[in-house]
Design a protein that fits this description.
Elements lengths: L1 H11 L7 H4 L6 E6 L2 E10 L8 E11 L3 E4 L9 E3 L1 H16 L6 H13 L4 H4 L9 H10 L2 H18 L3 H12 L2 E3 L12 H10 L7
Helix pairs in contact: 3-4, 3-7, 4-7, 8-9
Length: about 220
């Protein structure tokens, strides 16, 4: 009995005042709880059960509130995820996009993306173009573009990626470890914004040592 009343008060009655940047997220039917890394936001609902004097109250976790980032929705999962490549192409594009594009004949962003895809997969078949986050939202346009331009131009773009990457990471061992680790970073194509993969420790060390960027965005 006391336990049920405690949960009820947490959700519906007893209210602890938190900082203004937390309180602005509290609305009707939603409560806040202090947790280790910030403040958790929870949706409170009740359900009556036959034979019970009090409704059963439930809390659904909605996400985290921090002073720096505000409300961060919880990460959801797909029942049947379809994984696509993320880590290595993200690294190459974030760090070398400008250098790759500048070194191309009749440069374009689409050609540079195809060069990265060719570098990673060894081909720009339509199913492989769709298999990386770099094509997000422009898959059909990339596939059409790849079918119109000369294969030699895609090969040249691929070679430009190779040149830029090896110049930036001259140590072959570092390249091998970094590439292998980043290739393990895949994401759910059905839930691209909510399920970004964690950066492996070995890759993080190399990225930091060389002064590269790897933002989880």
């Amino acid at each position: 009995m006391l336990c049920i009343i405690y949960v009820y008060n947490t959700c519906m009655a007893k209210r602890i005042q938190y900082p203004d940047w937390v309180e602005k997220y509290r609305t009707e039917g939603v409560t806040v709880r202090k947790v280790r890394d910030g403040y958790g936001l929870y949706k409170c609902t009740s359900k009556r059960e036959e034979g019970k004097p009090y409704p059963k109250l439930q809390q659904e976790y909605l996400g985290m509130i921090t002073e720096k980032n505000g409300f961060i929705p919880k990460k959801s999962t797909s029942a049947h995820p379809v994984y696509i490549e993320y880590g290595f192409s993200h690294f190459l594009w974030e760090n070398f996009k400008r250098d790759i594009i500048r070194g191309l004949y009749r440069p374009s962003e689409n050609l540079a993306i195809l060069g990265v895809i060719r570098y990673i997969f060894g081909s720009t078949e339509p199913f492989l173009i769709r298999a990386t986050y770099l094509s997000d939202g422009i898959e059909d346009a990339l596939i059409e573009y790849a079918g119109k331009i000369a294969k030699s131009r895609i090969s040249s773009a691929r070679n430009r990626v190779d040149t830029v990457y090896k110049s930036a990471v001259p140590d072959e061992h570092d390249r091998t470890i970094l590439e292998a680790q980043l290739r393990l970073c895949v994401m759910d194509s059905k839930n691209r914004s909510a399920q970004l993969p964690a950066l492996p420790a070995e890759a993080a060390e190399i990225i930091e040592r060389y002064g590269f960027h790897y933002e989880q965005s």
